[in-house]
Amino acid sequence: MLTIALPKGRIADETLDRFEKAFGEKFIFEDRKLIMEKAGFKFLNVRNQDVPTYVMHGAADLGVVGLDVLEEKEYDLIKLLDLKLGRCKVAFGLRAGEKLNFDKSKITIATKHEKIAKKYFEQKAMAVEIIKLYGSIELAPLVGLCDCIVDIVETGETMKQNGLEVGPTIMETTAHLIANKNSFYAKKDLIFDLKDKLEKFL
Ligand code: PRP
Questions:
Q1: Cα(153) to centroid(ligand 1), Å
Q2: Which residue's alpha carbon is at the smallest distance from atom 3 of ligand 1?
Q3: What is the full DSSP assignment across 12-56?
Q4: CATH code 3.40.50.10610 for 2-87+173-199
């Protein structure tokens, strides 16, 4: 049995579609249930940011999570496979018409990707104040909470509809299959078999 933590929402649905193709069975969470057992798998329906936590603690052998979340959490996990799902980027969002002003003595950024933003400014040896938010990030520069934001951009529509422009990209991200280190050694055959099957449907 392999336990797999999936991030609630579209990525979970798209991952389960891949399993359907690979194993010829339907995998659907019933109504509000957070666990689904089928065909030798136990799927867990968890919040995106919580996926590495479940895998890290061994409560799940495997997980599906965006590279940005992995980068943000810096967990010691094995990256098994790029599922090529949920392609998006972590980028700056600026008030329309404004540019990133690198001459300013200190830039204030609102983001839920604190570490990624911090690293970017460390590499540029620039002072930055980071304000941690948990959502609706696009609102922050509009009401003067920050100079600009660092956030996930997929189509760019959320920024556009909130009077922001997409600025420089910090990183590209897609959903990856990850493994707990102990599980990886203890269940190597099962894990490689799954990886081979999923790879055929990328
Ligand atoms: C992300 C991000 C933006 C939106 C961008 O939120 O924070 O709000 O998607 O997508 P777009 O460029 O296609 O408009 P997400 O849906 O991941 O929800 P979350 O804030 O709960 O993480």
A1: 7
A2: 152
A3: HHHHHHHHHHHHSS-----TT-SEEEETTEEEEEE-GGGHHHHHH
A4: no
- Interval between CA 110 and ligand 1 midpoint (Å): 14
Partners of residue 129 on adjacent β-strands: 108
Summarised one tens digit per residue, pLDDT across range 6-21 is 999 999 999 999 999 9
Q: What is the pLDDT of residues 155-190, one digit of tens each?
A: 999 999 999 999 999 999 999 999 999 999 999 999
Tell me the per-residue pLDDT of 21-40, one tens digit each, with 9 for 90 and over: 999 999 999 999 999 999 99
Say if pTM beats, i.e. exceeds, 0.85.
yes
Domains 2-87+173-199 and 88-172 share a fold: yes
- Give the CATH H-level superfamily of domain 88-172: Periplasmic binding protein-like II (3.40.190.10)
pLDDT tens digits for range 37-54:
999 999 999 999 999 999
Find where tokens 């920024």 sit. Answer: 159
Q: Give yes or no for residue 157 CB within 6 A of ligand 1.
A: yes
Pocket of ligand 1 contains residue 153 by CB under 6 Å: yes
Q: What are the boundaries of each domain within the chain?
A: 2-87+173-199, 88-172
Structural tokens at position 74: 């810096």
The Cα–Cα gap between 123 and 89 comes to 19
